[in-house]
Amino acid sequence: SPAHIKARCAVYPGSDTHRFPVPDDKVDWETDWPQYSPVNYTAPAVLKKPVWADLEIGAFCPQFNLLDGSVDRRSHEGQYRIQNGKPLNPHGRTGLEGRGLLGRWGPNHAADPIVTRWKIDSSGQRFLHADSKLPVLQFVSIKRLDCGEWAIPGGMVDPGERISQTLQREFSEEALNSLKASDSEREKIQKRISELFSSAGLQVYIGYVDDPRNTDNAWMETVAVNFHDESGDSVSELPLQAGDDAGQVSWTDIDSSLALYANHSQFLKTVAEERKAHW
Ligand code: RP5
Ligand code: MG
Ligand code: MG
């Protein structure tokens, strides 16, 4: 896989902390680099010991590469190395050690629901792209509140939670604002949504995410699954409403020119290819 890029962004998100610059040819841990001197940074919110975060390494010894109680510390990418008691990013150096904004040492597991429908023209037919002559897919995208970038409405897997549950819950929270809905409204949303999400989704990605929050010792991993509303009468009819860590939500045409958070556009490329849609 190509060397991570966003995981080497100059300024660490939500801080004034500058990463130690890591050139492409020094990303690999196997490349000897005695001058490497990453800055140490763990966000104050993480050090405050919230329920979703680990403690500092020392007295606290997580079971790396294992299912540690209800926290899954296994990587989708195989065994990761431990150095001085700390896990090493499987994609190499990032210029920053510690956990940054991430709660877990090692893999921080997320799930990304990619909800799609066909773009329809004014006569109700599938819209064909002028260049590719292929039908255009649209997906539900959200504008992240933390950085303002458009993204898939994904989120963290709670301890012990099934991925299928995370996919549905995060979509409901971020794109349908279920957290702010009344009990009866929430029930209605869940009914509609669980039908689509219980259909066989198409898994388009599993593994490391090139996320700007990644560090040498903590990184994002995800399972991205496509749920497709083929006839356009399922989720397509639900009113979208941004919620939780989403500021805006919209149906967005899938196209190679999309600039999205992390490596999300890579996941969409696979969706387009698998569904024989325009890219
Ligand atoms: C990305 O961060 C994942 O692909 C997922 O979309 C997201 C999960 O983090 P939060 O949205 O909870 O911040 O790496
Ligand atoms: Mg969320
Ligand atoms: Mg999210």
UniProtKB/TrEMBL annotation:
Q: Which reaction does it catalyse?
A: ADP-D-ribose + H2O = D-ribose 5-phosphate + AMP + 2 H(+)
Q: Which UniProt keywords apply?
A: Signal
Q: Does the keyword Signal apply?
A: yes
Q: Where is the Nudix hydrolase domain?
A: 118-274
Known EC number(s)? 3.6.1.13
Say yes or no: keyword Signal present. yes
What sort of enzyme, by top EC class, is this?
hydrolase
| Recorded GO MF terms | ADP-ribose diphosphatase activity
Q: What quaternary arrangement does the UniProt entry report?
A: Monomer. Interacts with GLOD4.
Similarity comment? Belongs to the Nudix hydrolase family. NudF subfamily.
What is known about what this protein does?
Answer: Hydrolyzes ADP-ribose (ADPR) to AMP and ribose 5'-phosphate.
Report what the protein is called: ADP-ribose pyrophosphatase, mitochondrial
Q: Which organism is it from?
A: Danio rerio (Zebrafish)
Primary gene name: nudt9
Span of the entire protein shown here: 57 to 335 of 335
